[in-house]
Each structure stands twice: as structure tokens, then as C-alpha cells.
Design a protein that fits this description.
Blueprint: E1 25-30, H1 38-52, E2 57-62, H2 71-83, E3 90-93, H3 94-99, H4 102-105, E4 112-115, H5 128-144, E5 147-150, H6 153-163, E6 170-172, E7 191-195, H7 204-211, E8 220-224, H8 230-242, E9 249-253, H9 257-266, E10 269-271, H10 281-288, E11 293-296, H11 301-304, E12 310-313, H12 318-330, H13 332-347, H14 352-366
Parallel strand pairs: 1-2, 1-3, 3-4, 4-5, 5-6, 7-8, 7-10, 8-9, 10-11, 11-12
Helix pairs in contact: 1-14, 7-12, 10-13, 12-13
């Protein structure tokens, strides 16, 4: 288990600078690194693999309020940035890069790699003024980054096109996937599995509308994901009840790795109506288990989910989503073809050691003496 070595308190942080680990790196992660979301899992696995490679990378735990930090959390994070040794390159989580005022980044002397899962300014459902503020801060802070690591070619394109980051400054480190813990053992009635935090971007409302069109079929459904947005979580539970799905749809919340693995092996179909993904690690996990997938054709999803592995339908189209699910659940030949496509795609996915190798190369590039000046980018 990885936990940040420097835990926040209102009395301050231990000084993470001063050359305590020269020649290594600092990985700054806001909140609990054991949180079960794609971004946190990605960063935890990269940290573990960097250490397995013999790199003494130290994790520093920042306050957990990002991407909407309080004034105290902003000030505390600024002090941590200022304390970092200029001789030690840092990796900064995208929540911090996107949601911290550039004046705080001006206190950072260490060269840093920005780890951007997806731009915060592109998050679904933001108020226009909030989106504009995030776009300004992300753009400014990304200009200060010595290098940027992203999980998909699509996120790289977003940063080049919308945030002015030079292509030469960006590396793509596709997320790794673990080997399945066992063979699939689908349950009856067939399980439709969806995994994603309860926020508007994940499109669980569209999934529920689709499931309401399938009540004539035998199925059960599980939606696993932390209620990161309490208002969205409450609305989804109410929507499920209004549609008469409460007896068939379970909201499991945040679950353990072992429980999630069991659900993947038990499921018949993976379904996530996401409106935006920087990569979509859960899709890769589903593919690694040979699960047929129904999702939406947007953002980075088509880069991860091939057409042969199921169906990619228009975003926010509950009728099309329901039709794709119905076909996989009622036509054995279609389901068999999708399972074969998922297995082929899953076998080609990288492992976490591959992901960490890209990050290690980025750290070597930005290390003092190697990093190009900002003016040369």
C-alpha cells in the first residue's frame, strides 16, 4: 500500500526539499493515493513501478480538496512547492496543475512533469466562468512544466490544440492493466457492469435510461464508483427509483480491487455511457477480462475500445445505447464476436512497467542539467 509520506496538518508539512533525496524524484498527489479512481490507480501504479525500477521516488501527499481547494489548501500547497529542492524533479498531479493559481507555481524552483489525465477545463457540467478560470490556470501552469505526461493520444491532442502545449513537450504513457485473477464465470441473470465515479461526466444517467428500455429482458446491473458528487449520486438513485429499476440496479460505491475483479469475471457486458475520457482505464480492464463493451464514441474512448469489442454509440443517446445492449444480450453470435474482439484487444494492452518506463524517461529528460529551458520549448 502506498501512502504519502508527508501528511497535511494545519501546523504545516515536513520540509520535502533541502536535498533529502538528490538524484531521485518527488511525486505530489492530492488526497489519498489509495482512492479507487482511474487517476489515483494510475499514479499509484506508476509510483510502485518506478520504485521497482530502483528509482527512489518519494510520494508527497497534498491536501485533498483539489480540484476545488480551499484557501488554506492553496496556501499549504504553495508552501510545499516552494520547499521542493531545485535539484529534485517533481511529478505533479493534474488536479494541482489545473486548479492552482499560477502565482503559486511561480514559487516552485524544481523542474516538474505535469501528469494530466484529462484537462479540468473540459470537465462535463462546469459553469462557464469556472471553465474559463480553469482554462486560464491550466494553460499558464502547463507552460511552466518542463514536460507533460498524458495517458492517451487524444489528451495529447487536446493539450496541443486547446492549451498551446508543444507536441515535443508531451509523452503518452498508456495505462497498464493487471493480469486477470481468474477466468470469467458469468452469473445469471446476466450482469451488466458499469464502473465510474458518480459524476455527470460518466453518463450513468444515460445508462439508467437505456436500462429502462430493457425491462423485458432478464438482467441485473451494478454501478460501482465513489459518490464524488453527492448531488449527482442522489439524483441517480432517485432516477433509478423513478424508472422502476431499484430492484435490479445496485449502486456499490467505492469497492476494493478484489471485489472489482470478481465483478469483471462475473459480468456479461461492460457498459459505461461516458461523455469524456482522457483514456478510460476501466475499459482497458474490461478488455483484459474479455468483456464485450457498450460505450460512447467520444474523446479518447475509440482509442481504447475497438469496434470489434462491442458497440460505440453516439453520446447521450439512451435509445442507441439500449439497442446495443439488447443486441449483445439477445444475439449469442454478436456477443461471441464481441468477446473475441475484446480478448484480442486486451492481449495487446501494456503493463504498468511499460507505463512507468515512459515516466522514467520524462524524469530523466527534466532532471537538472538535462532539462531544456522554457524558452527553447
Amino acid at each position: 500500500m502506498v501512502r504519502g509520506e508527508n501528511l497535511p496538518s494545519r501546523q504545516g508539512y515536513n520540509n520535502p526539499g533541502g536535498g533529502l533525496f538528490p538524484g531521485a524524484a518527488a511525486f505530489l498527489i492530492p488526497g489519498d493515493p489509495d482512492t479507487r479512481t482511474g487517476g489515483y490507480i494510475y499514479e499509484k501504479q506508476v509510483l510502485l513501478e518506478l520504485r521497482r525500477m530502483g528509482r527512489p521516488v518519494r510520494s508527497l501527499r497534498l491536501p485533498g480538496g483539489f480540484p476545488a481547494p480551499s484557501a488554506w489548501e492553496v496556501a499549504t500547497t504553495g508552501r510545499v512547492l516552494a520547499a521542493l529542492s531545485p535539484e529534485v524533479p517533481a511529478i505533479l498531479d493534474g488536479f494541482v496543475v489545473g486548479a492552482l493559481e499560477p502565482i503559486e507555481f511561480a514559487r516552485l524552483r524544481a523542474p516538474f512533469v505535469a501528469m494530466i489525465h484529462h484537462p479540468l477545463a473540459l470537465e462535463t457540467g462546469l459553469a462557464p466562468d469556472r471553465a474559463a478560470w480553469l482554462r486560464r490556470t491550466e494553460r499558464a501552469n502547463l507552460q511552466r512544466a518542463a514536460h507533460v505526461v498524458v495517458p492517451s493520444p487524444r489528451t495529447r491532442e487536446d493539450l496541443i490544440r486547446s492549451f498551446g502545449v508543444p507536441e515535443t513537450k508531451i509523452s503518452v504513457a498508456l495505462p497498464g492493466v493487471p493480469k486477470p485473477l481468474g477466468p470469467r464465470a458469468p452469473v445469471e441473470p446476466p450482469l451488466i457492469l458499469s464502473v465510474g465515479t458518480l459524476v455527470p461526466r460518466k453518463g450513468h444517467d444515460v445508462l439508467l435510461e437505456a436500462l429502462a428500455r430493457l425491462v423485458d429482458l432478464p438482467w441485473q446491473a451494478v454501478i460501482a464508483g465513489a459518490p464524488r458528487d453527492p448531488a449527482t449520486a442522489a439524483a441517480l438513485v432517485a432516477q433509478s427509483a423513478r424508472l422502476g429499476l431499484s430492484e435490479r440496479v445496485q449502486f456499490r460505491g467505492e469497492i476494493s480491487e478484489a471485489e472489482l475483479s470478481h465483478l469483471y469475471r462475473s459480468a456479461a457486458v461492460f457498459a459505461l455511457a461516458s461523455r469524456l475520457e482522457g483514456y478510460g482505464m476501466v475499459f482497458a480492464e474490461a478488455l483484459s477480462h474479455g468483456l464485450p463493451i457498450v460505450t460512447c464514441r467520444n474523446s479518447a474512448i475509440p482509442d481504447t475500445v475497438p469496434d470489434a469489442a462491442g458497440a460505440l454509440v453516439p453520446t447521450d443517446d439512451a435509445q442507441a445505447f439500449a439497442g446495443a445492449l439488447r443486441q449483445l444480450m439477445t444475439e449469442p453470435e454478436a456477443r461471441t464476436r464481441a468477446e473475441a474482439g475484446a480478448q484480442i484487444a486486451g492481449a495487446k494492452l501494456p503493463r504498468w512497467a511499460d507505463t512507468a518506463t515512459v515516466m522514467a524517461e520524462a524524469l530523466d529528460r527534466v532532471a537538472p542539467g538535462n532539462a531544456p529551458s522554457l524558452a527553447s520549448e
